[in-house]
């Protein structure tokens, strides 16, 4: 952290938007003044750009904190807002999705076509007995049906839980169980890195491995045929999308639901081994997703081509692939595959081909392109790009400058957007037509958002100092809870600053002399690997679940490309060593974690050690292990029960 602080103290480059950009930008400086004058009136005005079947009269009910209700007596239909109303306004022929599969197949889907598909899918789901409040798990590749599936669930007032296609059958199982899903929507497979990545088999495995778990809740599995790989079939349970959806009626009325109707659950890693089901509701979530997409990404729906590269399995894909852009009636690129297949210029080829104007991606991707060199993007015409966005982790100034120069042709503003699964939408970011940007800083809270940087007791640290990021006022797209666990919701986010009533984000941050925010990474046992959140504890429990492992400790070590990398230290059981050859064990444990959680959680390094550094009360001192993993001199060891243990570990790691 100290090297980052040194860096930001010396960062004095500033980039103002061009006068043309500023003149045409949707987000203006007046928004700050309006929001400052009356925050609730400001959000009410943003909410009114949606279609309400029943207009709300109350903006915010904060009478029972931290359980907020926004626009509570209003009624709307989220899917209607993303689809029908654009068709009714005469924009049915506008392209909603410019989809490209990894092998190069293409589909252009207009708002009218997507509306039709969603209405049919909504009828299919209702025919399967899915109704208001029921949960539907979605485990899909990045194909148009994935977006249609989310909207079909929303349309009927049910709740989706999208599970990233890279998660294992085990992870899928626990998420399906936690939510009590009635239906799973999946595909036979998707294309990734030039190969078929099977999905339906993982669903079969998840549903087959009932074990000692609760009773099965899943009644049906709806399957899109994408890759044509062999899949097993249960005639009573499984239904092909291509049989059911086209045959269903295209008449489906979008019924109104209360603003606080749950829209989705999205699981994210916390500091314990059990992922949290973050719950979002309808009116406030859609208001802020659409508003931020409009002003931060400066979407002009008639002319822009937006591309958010995130998978729908993450919050970024929920808010800036499905809900924000479609609520705004925008045209966007949806790409199925990996950035380097079949060649390392694949993304830039897509930017050129579709004349993408706004690109929203993660620092980890930018750093890997940087590593490959400028010659690759330089082969393509990127002149359509007029705005660039970054999300998921702090972007280091070098990567920021490269992004601006090589991808943005030294003119496109860059917005570094800070937010979380829990916040639902962007919270801290420059406004591209207003803010003078600074490489490496996420800068300022958006209009209508109130944040601060405080010390451990909740006192503001003031400019020039570091501390903890807090959100001091409720916001429309805030999480409404953790599915099935209200106590954990209160404890995780609200207990630390209970006295002040602040939301604790779990991020360290620093305010510079201008009051701009610089994010410094997580302050808890949560890692950020390639912009994805992973819990040290969750990976540790996966490791100790292996028959060979007695104890495990996991740390996030800084990594040039992925931001942080998973590094694990394991103690092997004597009994296992007595009967097995330890050769190859580290590699086996890496793939074990991949099978238990998913490939993203696979440790970069597995070190087999004899002991772990613990305090007298038995707490593992991960800080010291991080020193080892990052090749630094080991820090203060005086609180260790056995101060010699670190030199033993260091020797074993070499
Ligand atoms: C955590 C949230 C928000 C969508 C993607 C990740 C880190 C996110 C930034 C940024 C510095 C960032 C934070 C945050 N983070 N964006 N622009 N600068 N850090 O969502 O998985 O819920 O992770 O990502 O540490 O707490 P998530």
Automatic annotation (TrEMBL):
Cofactor(s) named in the record: Mg(2+)
Pfam family, any one: AMP-binding
PTM statement from Swiss-Prot or TrEMBL: Acetylated. Deacetylation by the SIR2-homolog deacetylase activates the enzyme.
Entry EC number(s): 6.2.1.1
AMP-binding enzyme C-terminal domain sequence ranges: 538-619
Family: Belongs to the ATP-dependent AMP-binding enzyme family.
Functional summary from the UniProt entry: Catalyzes the conversion of acetate into acetyl-CoA (AcCoA), an essential intermediate at the junction of anabolic and catabolic pathways. AcsA undergoes a two-step reaction. In the first half reaction, AcsA combines acetate with ATP to form acetyl-adenylate (AcAMP) intermediate. In the second half reaction, it can then transfer the acetyl group from AcAMP to the sulfhydryl group of CoA, forming the product AcCoA.
Record protein name field: Acetyl-coenzyme A synthetase
Lineage, uppermost ranks: Bacteria, Bacillati, Actinomycetota, Actinomycetes, Micrococcales
């Amino acid at each position: 952290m100290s090297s980052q602080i040194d860096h930001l103290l010396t960062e004095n480059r500033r980039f103002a938007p061009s006068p043309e950009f500023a003149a045409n930008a949707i987000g203006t400086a007046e928004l700050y003044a309006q929001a400052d004058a009356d925050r609730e009136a400001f959000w009410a005005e943003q909410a009114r750009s949606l279609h309400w079947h029943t207009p709300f009269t109350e903006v915010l009910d904060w009478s029972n904190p931290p359980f907020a209700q926004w626009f509570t007596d209003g009624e709307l239909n989220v899917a209607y807002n993303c689809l029908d109303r654009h068709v009714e306004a005469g924009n049915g022929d506008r392209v909603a999705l410019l989809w490209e599969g990894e092998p190069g197949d293409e589909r252009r889907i207009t708002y009218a076509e997507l509306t039709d598909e969603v209405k049919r899918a909504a009828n299919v789901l209702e025919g399967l007995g899915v109704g208001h409040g029921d949960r539907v798990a979605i485990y899909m590749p990045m194909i148009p049906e994935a977006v249609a599936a989310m909207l079909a669930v929303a349309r009927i007032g049910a709740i989706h839980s999208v599970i990233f296609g890279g998660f294992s059958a085990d992870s899928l199982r626990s998420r399906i169980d936690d939510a009590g899903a009635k239906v799973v929507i999946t595909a036979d497979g998707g294309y990734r890195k030039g190969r078929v990545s099977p999905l339906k088999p993982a669903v079969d495995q998840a549903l087959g491995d009932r074990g000692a778990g609760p009773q099965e809740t899943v009644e049906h599995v709806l399957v899109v045929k994408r890759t044509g790989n062999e899949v097993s079939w249960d005639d009573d349970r499984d239904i092909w999308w291509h049989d059911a959806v086209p045959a269903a009626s295209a008449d489906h009325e979008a019924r109104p639901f209360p603003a606080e109707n749950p829209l989705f659950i999205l699981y994210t890693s916390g500091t314990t081994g059990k992922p949290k089901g973050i719950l979002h509701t309808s009116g406030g979530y859609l208001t802020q997703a659409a508003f931020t997409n409009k002003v931060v990404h400066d979407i002009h729906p008639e002319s822009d081509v937006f591309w958010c590269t995130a998978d729908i399995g993450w919050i970024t894909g929920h808010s800036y692939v499905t809900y924000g852009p479609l609520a705004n009636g925008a045209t966007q690129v949806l790409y199925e595959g990996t950035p380097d297949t079949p060649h390392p210029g694949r993304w830039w080829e897509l930017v050129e081909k579709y004349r993408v104007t706004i690109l929203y991606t993660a620092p980890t991707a930018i750093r890997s392109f940087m590593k490959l060199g400028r010659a690759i993007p330089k082969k393509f015409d990127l002149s359509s790009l007029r705005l660039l966005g970054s999300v998921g982790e702090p972007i280091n100034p070098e990567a920021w400058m490269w992004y601006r120069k090589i991808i943005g042709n030294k003119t496109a503003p860059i917005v570094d957007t800070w937010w979380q699964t829990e916040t639902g939408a962007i919270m801290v970011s420059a406004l591209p037509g207003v803010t003078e940007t600074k490489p490496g800083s996420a800068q300022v809270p958006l209009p209508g958002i109130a944040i601060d940087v405080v010390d451990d007791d909740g006192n503001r640290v003031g400019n020039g100092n570091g501390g903890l990021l807090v959100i001091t006022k409720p916001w429309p797209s805030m999480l409404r809870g953790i599915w099935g666990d209200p106590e954990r919701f209160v404890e995780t986010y609200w207990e630390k600053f209970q006295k002040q009533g602040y939301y604790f984000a779990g991020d360290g941050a620093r305010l510079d002399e201008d009051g701009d925010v610089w994010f410094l990474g997580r302050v808890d046992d949560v890692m950020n690997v390639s912009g994805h959140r992973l819990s040290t504890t969750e990976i540790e429990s996966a490791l100790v679940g292996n028959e060979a492992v007695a104890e495990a400790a996991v740390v996030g070590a800084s990594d040039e490309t992925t931001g942080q990398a998973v590094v694990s230290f394991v103690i092997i059981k004597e009994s296992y060593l007595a009967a097995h050859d330890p050769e190859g064990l580290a590699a086996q444990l890496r793939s074990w974690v991949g099978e238990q959680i998913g490939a993203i959680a696979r440790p970069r390094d597995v070190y087999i050690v004899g002991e772990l550094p613990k305090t007298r009360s038995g707490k593992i001192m991960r800080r010291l292990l991080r020193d080892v993993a990052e090749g630094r001199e080991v820090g203060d060891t005086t609180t260790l029960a056995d101060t010699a243990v670190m030199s033993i570990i260091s020797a074993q790691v070499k």
